[in-house]
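Collaborator request, handled under Task 6.
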Amino acid sequence: MTNAPLRWGIMGTGGIAGAFAEDLQLTESGVVAAVGSRSAESAERFAGTHHIPARHSSYEALANDSDVDVVYVATPHPLHHANARLALEAGKPVLVEKPFTMNADEARDLVELARAKHLFLMEAMWTRFLPHIRHVRELLPRLGDVVTVAADHGQWFAEDPAFRLFAPELGGGALLDLGIYPVSFASMVLGPPERVAAMATPAFTGVDAQMSMLFGYASGAQAVLTCTLSAVSPTTASIVGTEARIEIDGPFYAPASFTFIPREGERSRFEYVDAGRGLRHQADDVALRLAAGETESPLMPLAETVSIMTTMDEVLAATRT
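Structure tokens returned to the collaborator:
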């Protein structure tokens, strides 16, 4: 790779694709060179809005565009596996929007393909790359033994069977779209759980409208996580240790401030303000890794992505028993 800005190709024209295109304008590491959609009209509209020079009426055409250095998959969840595979088979490094895939088997397949082709691949869990989360990770050793991790993510959505979060065929449900953030946060702090318990409340279309999860770890630690499509929750997170705790303001998964509170002594407040939505930081990390010839990021390693998808599978299975 050269030091020239990465030329991104975006698969998909939904809200997160637009947010990524806008945030990329705040960084010097990359530019959007092309967009691909299943319809020419959607591609044209998106390209016009975001001033993108090339637009393709198929995902195949985008994957095979020689002027694209790296592909960002921002299509609905059920398409992630096929779309990422398409880009990898075309020889492109890939950033895949979360959730990475619909299940762990699909995740493992993509990882195996990327490793066989020696191509970069990463889940777009953009929270991992935010300045306040990087700082939180630096402070973890000061907490002592972590006892509890708690995180929630709740948003209110009008009940519309055509809306993707309520549509089973579009990978709807609170867990895959919202719960991935608390689950990934717990994984970042405690790793994979030994035990998983969960309770779900179905929406009118049958997808999970609300999910409560309890994870148990070999250390004795526990994670208490919730997500819902039915109400706006605090969307805060906390990490509680024997020596101190960290409380992250809501929404914890986006640029946020936090407080470090020792068991004894004065608390410390860390304020963070970030330009844009915060998606630019993961794009910068992709550029950094590609320039170094790396095929994954230590901030969101592929093995952990597969582990997280395995945990998500276990959560869903726990609600069916």
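The cover message to the collaborator said: "The chain has a mean pLDDT of 96. Residues 174-190 form the longest helix (17 residues). Please let us know whether this matches your experimental observations."
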